[in-house]
Structure formats: structure tokens, C-alpha cells
Amino acid sequence: MDAIRDRLVTCFQTVFPDLPEAEIPAATQASVAAWDSVAVITLANVVEDEFGIQVDFDLLAELDSFGRFHEYLCREMQVS
Amino acid sequence: MNVTEALRILRRAPADAPPYSVVLACGFTPLHLQTFLAAHLQQSLAGRRVTVSTGLYGDTAGTLEVHNNLSADAVSLALEWPDLDPRLGYRGAGNWGAAALADILSVTRAAFDRLSAAIENLPAGTPVAVSLPTLPLPPIFHTPGWQTAEAELALARNVLEFASRIMRRRGCSLVNAGRLTEDSPLGNRCDLKSDLLTGLPYTVPHASAVGAALARLLAPPMPKKGLISDLDDTLWWGIVGEIGPEEVSWDLASHHRLHGLYQMLLAALAEEGVLIGVASKNDPASVRQAFLRKDLLVRPGQIFPVEASWNAKSSSVERILHAWNIGADSVVFVDDSPMELAEVAAALPGVECLRFPKDDYGAAYAMLRRLRDLFGKARISPEDAIRLESVRQGAAFQEIAGGGSASEAFLQQSEAAIAFDFRLSTHDPRVLELVNKTNQFNLNGVRYTESDWKDRLSRQGALLATVSYQDKFGPLGKIAVVQGRKDGETLYIDTWVMSCRAFSRRIEHQCLKMLFDRYHADAIVFEFVPTPKNGPLQDFFAGIAGDRPTAAFALKRTQFEEKCPPLYHRVGEPQAGRC
């Protein structure tokens, strides 16, 4: 597992404390009941805190799974 | 604090702790404000599990009105301009033109009336923390941004009128706008994108600042009780033993006004019931001479005791703590010498040590404000006004009584009078203040919020005794509180505190006698828990029960009567109460 993935898992654990760690990599907005419109903003802020980046709110609708967050971060971290 | 830290604080909250529920009324999407408010409160209320609930978007007054009939431990209101009229925000589609201003003013007045009524109708005793609009008004006025518009002033006047109206409700407190501006600069508060996309108009740092400010009002730190000051180059400029009492200075002409400001603050603190003492390495005669100066800005009578000697500062501080009979963690020590501060800090780690920065105006300004924060309190009670005098009298009492235990003759002649008030009232804030700040004679160290206290007093069989004392040395005011319940022939005491100023007068014995007699009880069960600080109460229990208790225990009437020494107090007629 890569470092970005590990750190992203920690972010998910912070925002969704009831989500078992093993289920996090497969988590999607549809599969996690607590992943609502408020949680997605909270998740974006926690990701910002963890990675020191600004998450573009316009993209939040697209970041609807752990995998998509991971891809987004890999792109952002590469750029920075 | 960032969002991640806030969430982690909330995750660490003890799952089985008693809940502390707060209603957050705001018209916008609460989002991080809710998280930050909960996290900051959780930090202050470590033994509780804090939950923050919110109401409907855009319905601040409605949220308060719904909660008029619900039981929350506290209410917080984060008001912003659109709560008063949606045209004062960025999300509402309305007319910003000059023609709309008169109507906006009228709508805001009506909104303030509704909010005031909702706050006034909240359950009595529920603490309410209010943050008045923190965001700049949108550019709706015809004037350029650097010029104040008349309508803007009218809005500001409405805000102030609302603020002074709700401040009259007991338990309602307002965030200090000036301090909030220091913590969260005006230009960094509004996040227009977040406002338009999510409904939260605050930047994350501003949400944290407002959350912290509201939390501090609901769960304020306990104010310190005493300040011990150095003299030379602290209370005044100069070394009195070298230049003489007439040459030490604190005035503008000598350019030593910082010391004068410090004296003025000490005088104000003394008037508010803060104990002020002096610990100085000095010749006592020189100090006495200096204290005869008529231009001192703190009256010598406001300072007690003055420990002037060549001993270590820590031993002087210890003697002062003994005279005041308070713990080191209730005290601040101010000295210009880093070495002296370090010596006191090493010997008495609980004491908060502050350096008097005699040559640094910026640091001195910060220190004066820091002292105000450490000693500030929401209200000043009658007991605050007599505290110093009663400590002074207490010292005289102990001296005449010959130390630890007073002689029978002395107690008999002290003309002591005790008044018991058995009303189950939650209106006297002194009662809960005494419960929450007393350490040494405290049954179990449990601290209560206003709503906890109210709940306890509304239980079946609840009893409350508030005890006041005076003797020929003067009044001590309200010095003890007993709270519990009666069940059959047994009293259960959950709370018993007594001010350290009231020790050695057998007031604690008289309290037990009164409880046994008034409630015709065969036994009293004390919900005792040993704490690191309640040794004096443990000693008292050892005297009447035979051993220092280690947990809750029952004391039989016969046991008490066998060990109770003669009591000479004149006991005031108890007032009517339930039970």
C-alpha cells in the first residue's frame, strides 16, 4: 500500500470512525451511510489538513469513492 | 485547531461519560462550527461527552423556540446578518438597492424582537452563549466601503439594543467582538465560495475561532483566586533598599507608568475579591516606609499578607498560601526576575508564574491583559467584597485561637452566628460557584454545570442547605453548601463544600447537627470520594467517624453525637424549604 493510500485511510478513519479499516479502500458514497453532503466537506477538510493542499469544492461531487479520492490525491501530489 | 484535530478530540470523548448537550442555533449550515464548538467544549469538559445539535437551516429563532421546551445543558447562538434579513447575506435573491434599506431595518428590528423573546423564554438557568454578527455586511449601502452609511449605523444600533436586552437574562453571555477580531481578523472570516456552495459562510479558521469563543463562554476556565507580587521593579520601579522609599516610582513623569498601571490593575482585582499578597526579598522596615506613600495606586489595605524577608521567594509564597488557605494552582506569582520565577515554579509547580517585563511595553500590555483573563469572572458576588477582610480576620482568628484548634473559651466568646437557608433555589449563582471552586473541604470534587445542578435540585426528596457565617471578627458570607436527598430515615449527601476561610470554627459540626435535627435522620450517607486535595475533610471525618474514609460511608446520629464537641453558634432560623 502506498503512502498516500495509508494517509487517506487515516483521513477516512477520522471522518467515518465506525467504518472498519478493511472496508475503507472499497468505500463509496453509496456504500457508506454516513457519507452525506456534510461528511464529504468534512472529508475534504481533513484531506486538506493531512496533505496540505486545497481541495477544489467544485470537484467534490466527483470524489465519491475512496478510489477517486486516491486518484485525485496522486494527481495533486504529483503536480505539487 | 483544524478539522482533523477537532474530530479526533470528539472521537476520544469517553463513551460512558455523562452527556453534555448543547443546542447550536444558527441560520447557516453549521458544518465545521458545530464540530469546533463540540471539540472546544469537549476539551474543557473532559469528564463529559459533548453533543451539539442544530436546527433547521435559515430558522435561527425557530431553533431557539423549539428548544424552549426541551432540556439542553446549554444553548449557543451564532448570529449572522442573513438571520435578521436574508437580503443581508449572499445567498438570498433580493434587492440591495437604497430603496430596500428602510424595509431591511424594519425587518431586522422584528427579527431581533423575535430572537430576544425566544432567548428570554429559554428554561431559566440554561446558559446561553451568543455571538453577534461576525461577518462584514455585504456592499448594500450607497457609500463607498471606507465611509460608514447611516443605515449601517442603524443596524449596529439594533444589534446593540438586542445585546443589552438579552444580557439582562441571567446566564446569557456575549462573545467579546474585539477579542474575536484579534483571534480571527475581519478580512479572513468570510468564505464566499463555501457560503454559496455549502451554506457555511465561515472560513475554517473563523469557524474554529467562533466555536472556541462560544465554548469559552459556556465552560469558562476557573478564575485564579490570588496574586502574589514582588515589589522592587515590579510593583514599583527601583530597589527600595538601595534608593529609599521616596525614590521608588510608578508615575508618568518618571517614565515608570507601567508599574502604576500594574498597581491600578491590582487595586481593581482586589475590589473584585482577588487576594493580593506580596513576596519580596527586602528589609521589612523599608517596605513599611514605602507603603506609607500616599500616591500608591493600590491601597496597602488591599494587600495581605506582606512577606518581606531575605528568605527564598518560594517560602514566602508558601506562607502566603497558608495565610490564604488556598492551593498553589489558584495563584499567580508576578516577579521581574526570571530566576525568582524559576525558583518558585520549581518549589510550587502549581503556581502560574508571570514575568513583569519592566522594559518591554508590548510585553507589559500583554501581561496586564493576561492577568485580566486569569482573574476575570462573569459576575462579582457580595462574598467577593468581603473576601480579603474575612481572610485577614481568619488570620487574626487563628492567631488568637493559637493555631490549629481554637480553645473552648475563645470559641465561646467569638459570638458566632450561623444562618441556614434551605430553599431549593437555583437563583443564587454564589451557591454553584462555591461548589465548583472549593477543593479542600469538598466531599468528592464533583463539579456541576448549571443544568446538572438544576436537575439535582428537582429530584424527589432533594435538599439544599446554604450556610452563612459571621462572628465578632466580621462576616464570612455564604461559606458552605450541602446538597443531597432524603429517603426514609436516611439522608444522602452528594455535595458538601465549605470555604477554607471558615475552617476551625466547628461550622462543619453545626452543619451535621442541623441536618440530623431538621430531617430527623438516623444516619447520613456521604457520597465521599477521596481527592488529592480534600485532606481537611478527610481529617474531619476521621475525627467523628474514627477513620479516614476511602469511599462512600454512613454516619449514624449516635456516632456523631458521641464525637461532636460543644457548639457555641447562634443558629439562625432555617427558612422554609421542600423535603
What is the C-level CATH assignment of the largest domain in chain B? Alpha Beta
Please state the overall shape of chain A, judged from the principal axes of the Cα atoms.
globular
- How far is the first residue's CA from the last residue's CA of chain A? 21 Å
CATH superfamily of the largest domain in chain B: SGNH hydrolase
Total discrete domains of chain A: 1
Q: Quaternary arrangement of the chains shown? A: heterodimer
Distance between the ends of chain B: 48 Å
The count of strands of chain A amounts to: 0
Number of helices of chain A: 3
CATH topology of the largest domain in chain B: Rossmann fold
Domains of chain B, number: 3
The helix content of chain B is 40-55%
Biggest beta-sheet profile of chain A: none
Characterization of this structure:
The complex is a heterodimer of chains A (80) and B (579). Chain A is an all-alpha fold. Chain A has a single domain, classed as ACP-like (Non-ribosomal Peptide Synthetase Peptidyl Carrier Protein, Chain A, Orthogonal Bundle), CATH 1.10.1200.10. Chain A contains three helices and no strands. The radius of gyration of chain A is 11 Å and the shape is globular. Chain A starts with a helix and ends with a helix. The model of chain A has no long low-confidence stretch (mean pLDDT 88). Chain B is an alpha/beta fold and 579 residues long. Chain B has three domains: 3-218, 3-Layer(aba) Sandwich (Rossmann fold), CATH 3.40.50; 226-375, Rossmann fold (3-Layer(aba) Sandwich); 402-571, Gcn5-related N-acetyltransferase (GNAT) (Aminopeptidase, 3-Layer(aba) Sandwich). Chain B is 41% helix and 18% strand. Chain B contains 22 helices and 18 strands. Chain B has helices at residues 3-11, 31-44, 60-66, 81-84, 98-120, 150-167, 177-183, 192-198, 204-218, 240-243, 257-271, 284-290, 313-324, 338-347, 361-375, 382-401, 408-412, 429-437, 450-457, 507-518, 535-545, 557-563, and strands at 19-25, 49-54, 74-78, 128-131, 172-174, 226-229, 275-281, 303-309, 331-335, 352-355, 417-421, 441-442, 462-471, 474-487, 490-498, 523-526, 553-556, 570-571. Chain B is globular and about 85 Å long. The two termini of chain B are 48 Å apart. The model of chain B is unreliable at 575-579 (pLDDT under 50).
